[in-house]
Design brief:
The structure is a homodimer of 352-residue chains.
Chain A (H helix, E strand, L loop, with lengths): L8 H14 L4 H16 L10 H9 L10 E5 L3 E5 L5 H19 L1 E9 L10 H4 L4 E7 L21 E5 L6 E5 L6 H9 L9 E2 L5 E2 L12 E2 L4 H4 L1 H18 L12 E8 L7 H17 L14 H13 L7 H11 L9
Parallel strand pairs in A: 2-3
Antiparallel strand pairs in A: 1-2, 3-10, 4-5, 4-10, 5-6, 7-8, 7-9
């Protein structure tokens, strides 16, 4: 059994970087991508970490993900810009755009970048500390115009993607790291539970006749059922509204999306970075967010709950533990990585 | 009975403007405030329209709402600014800031304004067409640091406000007008249903022991129960995340909030306007949002639902009908207005 083995984060990063390089990715891009994927595993977001390395490597070698060159700049006014990603790795495009937006927010107070025709961007939460570590508030959203699994409120038609939106908020302590989708659950989790023969924790999907259920199998019928918007059949107009916001930020502002021909697995991306120092001041910002974070953590848990947490608390605790004790990868992940190591003649990581 | 009477929108606006002027509001401010309040009634958002005129007039005459002068500019970099609202009418501050942000977005591509120490801002949806009519995408969020009725996920402590966020999205047809709170329901609706002895449509609140219920009365016990975040006890980490985002945008960026002394009923406000023309182009934007709006409306409704709607469809239909046939005010609203007409020697509106 390999499930109990632990790996050093830097070893996983080195192997992942070597794999992407061996598969034809620019060295500079492989160097950016590897730590972002491992970051997701460190945080415990195991559906969006190294589990994605094999399909990414397959897309790269099949020519469905671009491994070289730069995005095409469609517009650039300084505080806003839009790029055509040319189907370059979405992890690299997103990290590169965030770093640029952080620099520009220092000058302008804010910077928004919309990216069309990116490849998939993996785990949104794994990018946030690039901005919060520099005192910036960041919003990151993505959607994939090539697929639809979530139904609008009151609809049974799977029409759009879970449409995640992640926000990083600096405080006077740990940052608040929010990563929510506009649907109750995700393609990643429903797919994994279906494969493992398990049920969802609640009635988070509906069958193709509109009956809410905890069975992920209803998404794989013909015609398929759909994932419910946040709020479900009770108050799903909230999740529906959030999805429309994300679709407009990503596909509207980048000018590419569901109205265009399907180019396969990919993403449209929206990034906004805001510098609290350009508003009422960095200290004034952290005084409010720190107060609120503290008040939430000190608030009274409901019966059966040990303590009230802030978004990101669990992920940051898992990350600290994984950095100290090694990363325990989700079952099957190391096998997927090792298969590509053999294929590309890269030495696999050794357990510690 | 007055509930069946209808009023011309322009008559309601004229009377409301006269009332605020007579109560000491600058004439220019009264002229801005009146149509925004009536707009909410036109759209059917009856808890946040003219129902608020009496408490606003009371706040103004009691010196709790400021009726004259300008906000203090704390910072201004062009694409971002922050103001101290000096407790001026929040409806006026918000409308004024949106108009400025629209102008600036034409130059910079984007503009964000955070406002501290505003008075209450009424109905967020009623402001959105100021921006969408000019082809702009707008985000408007508010929170009131002086009160707390919503509990964090897994908590029973009422800690923050419903924290609404509204987004206006231009399309090639009607704009999409989203106005959602981070909690399942609002202070306005729970208060009204409690007064009327009615129940909520679902288990949207919890009592002070953490049991979810449809009884709004649990919010008025000692200690009080709380409103549940969007997603409820099932997946309320989504609404909790959204609330933390709104609190950071409004109180964090404006540098004023729950960490400060309670100044009474008011608001902190965040506005962001983005010009699609500065990203991938106005037509490219509307091509995507129009396609999606059409696909949602054409999607298959679930059993028992007549058709799938876009956020704003109902409000815009109600607005068109009310402009054509007159406004039927919610029971009690005309009485509240008429009382202030008598007090301030303003002629009350005549029914049509």
């Amino acid at each position: 059994m390999t499930a109990d083995l632990r790996y050093a984060a830097q070893d996983l990063i080195a192997v992942t970087e070597a794999l992407f390089g061996a598969a034809g990715m620019d060295a500079e891009k492989a160097r950016v991508i590897a730590p972002v994927l491992v970051e997701a595993d460190l945080m415990g977001h195991t559906t969006h970490g190294l589990q994605l390395a094999p399909p990414y490597l397959a897309a790269l070698t099949d020519g469905l993900m671009e491994g070289t060159g730069q995005p095409e700049v469609i517009s650039d006014r300084g505080p806003v810009a839009s790029w055509d990603g040319r189907r370059i790795s979405g992890v690299w495009l997103t990290a590169t755009a965030i770093d640029l937006a952080v620099d520009r927010a220092k000058a302008y107070g804010t910077c928004s970048i919309a990216i069309r025709r990116s490849h998939h961007i993996a785990c949104l939460a794994a990018f946030l500390q690039r901005a919060t570590d520099q005192g910036m508030m960041i919003t990151l959203a993505s959607s994939d115009p090539a697929s639809g699994s979530v139904a609008p409120f009151n609809s049974i038609t799977p029409l759009y993607t879970p449409d995640p939106i992640a926000v990083g908020i600096p405080t006077d302590g740990d940052p608040i790291l929010i990563d929510i989708s506009a649907s109750i659950t995700t393609n990643g989790l429903t797919g994994r539970l279906q494969q493992e023969g398990k049920k969802l924790p609640g009635n988070w999907v509906q069958d193709n006749a509109g009956t809410a259920t905890d069975d992920p199998g209803v998404l794989f019928t013909d015609p398929p059922g759909s994932i419910l918007p946040v709020g479900g059949q009770d108050h799903g107009h909230k999740g529906y509204g959030l999805a429309l916001i994300v679709e407009a930020l990503t596909q509207g502002l980048s000018g590419w999306g569901r109205a265009d021909p399907n180019e396969g697995w990919g993403a449209t991306v929206y990034i906004q970075v805001q510098d609290p120092a350009a508003f009422a001041g960095a200290d004034a910002f952290k005084r409010q967010t720190g107060w609120l974070a503290d008040a939430c953590r000190r608030s009274t848990p409901r019966p059966g709950v040990d303590k009230v947490r802030l978004p990101g608390d669990g992920a940051l605790a898992r990350k600290r533990a994984a950095l100290a004790e090694g990363v325990a990868l989700y079952p099957g992940v190391i096998e997927g990585l090792s298969g590509w190591c053999e294929k590309l003649s890269v030495a696999p990581p050794n357990a510690i």
